[in-house]
Amino acid sequence: MLPWADALVPFIAAASVIFIPGLLISSAAGATGWHRWALAAPVTFTVAGVSAIAYELVGIPFTAASFGAAAAALSVVTWLVARLLRRRFTTDVAPSSQPARQRPARTMLFATAAGLIIPVVMISYRLLRGIGSPTAIAQLFDNVFHLNAVALIAASGKGSSLTLGNLTEASRGFYPAGFHDVVAVVMGLGVTDVSIALNVVSITMASLVWPISFMFLATRIFGSRAQVVIAAGLSAWLFAAFPYRLFSFGVLYPFMAGLTMLPVLIALVIEFFGRKAPRRATRPATTACIVAAAPGIALTHPSVVVAALVLATPFVVSAMARALRPGPGEDRDRLSLILGGAYVAGTIISFAVIRPPLSTAPWDPTQSPREAAGAIVLMSPGTSLIGWVLIPLAAVGLVVAIRRPGRHGAILASAAIGSILYFASAAMWHPLVRDLLVGVWYRDTERVSALFAIACLPLIVLGTLTLIDVTSRLVLRAVPRATARTGLVAAVIIVGMVIVVIGQRGALAQAGSWLSQSFGQAGAQPLLTDDERALLDEVPDFVPQDEVVVGDAATGASLTPAFSDREALTPHIFGARSDEEELLIERWRRAGVDPQVCEVIDDLKAYWALDFGTDGVLLGNERPDPYGLQRLDDAPGIAEVARVGDAVLYEAVACR
């Protein structure tokens, strides 16, 4: 197994691709401080997703070079437009620009660094340990698609979300390819192993992009104070449901990546409807930020944008309530009422319209109503173990929010929305109501568990901030000579140590076990065994570049695009197939006795087949029956070419 130290350069490549283009463009627009860093990843994903579509429409390959050219061109154009706007208007281009342009205090810089280091270390440590090696792959159903999609985009230069589909010509159609486009760009920088590229990008998104995004949201809700960013950093890694579980279920790389950027959209909506007049004056700039960030998130996973709209709604409604009841000396903000009403209406329409076909959403409830309610109360969605540190933090936050609804009512409402969605997915059996509430997220409890965690995190931060404040007062009372700053630092250290120590117990330990099992560290390798992967490495020695390999995708035998640089007849387990492809799946083994089979083999150049047995990631009735790929060892006209253990490569010599 390759040690993680050998993946340092790929990690640097991943971080550079994710952050540098977005930083250049947002800086060119005049963004500073939190805006610059929080917008970096979403803007990069927008450049990747949109440029991949545009390049395919005009016939230009999507590569690391063409992606870089698009980012550079957009940076120049953005700078010119921003400069022109600054000359014409007095309002700066960057939201909250006047405070942002002030030099950050040393205390705030230190707090930001400390607040960021905590989740980066905690999340990355658990992911690195659970995954085990840079070359390890998630032994899960969806990874057949993700591995092959990235490899095919990197090899072909075609990464358009409008045509990616299920990776074959017969299945061309929409599939959000933003995440895969970014990973393909990382491969274009020299990270030739698709498993390494996929791991370093996904880990960077979870351990770095997510904390930055959430800390940005926390500062929009609670203000840009040192204790806020530290409290956000202390809270960001505590839920097993996110980000860890999405690495061990599915595997849901695009959804996970989209959720790491979700707080940015919520934060921008809060900023747009901010209560202060200077914020309202920067609404055009905030709108520009939303326009720059939303496409990248939507092209990573559209349901994440719907989630952002829904979870931000309480903050919009709160702003509308303030607009209806202006303070002394203030006029009623009719514009906020109009915009807020439009937002709520748009959210309802989007929630009703943007959803996948329910035929692709097979998940049933997983808990009884009592169990689901218990999971909500115990802050343990999707797991049988309790997040011990989350319970007191949530309880304190809940009490404070109830006592001060005018200030914290939106936080409470957001957590309530997450709770309702979780209960609907986990325990509600009424099909129409369940489909209405959680059909956007495939009715899947694991996905909605992640949304529940994100929806409740502001409440957790509120509880953490309250405990820091109480502890600070206790320190000052115990040490009369201590300054307010000393008391605050001591309180942060005390509360932080308690959270870090207790937070390791319970559900997070189970999350680590999930990861180890899903990435094959616990012995089970249902998708791709070591022998099968070794044979895939040998395939290029036998199969010409322009010929096709047939295999049962559920066993990993279709991963030749990812690991052999050879085309697979069925690069995903499901998806539309042409009549010729269906014929070979059903009858390839009859090449020596059925002339029609040889005609199709010649037409598709599908002279090769991989037999990885019958054990795979799908069993029983869920799995397509690849009858034509069974019992190849005694099929006439079929010859064994290479073998590693029980994994075998065959050739249809009868068709040559």
UniProtKB/TrEMBL annotation:
InterPro entries: DUF6541 (IPR046671)
Origin species: Microbacterium paludicola
Keywords in alphabetical order: Membrane, Transmembrane, Transmembrane helix
Signal peptide: none
TM ranges: 7-25, 37-58, 64-85, 106-125, 196-216, 228-246, 252-274, 335-354, 374-402, 409-430, 450-470, 482-503
Protein name per the record: Uncharacterized protein
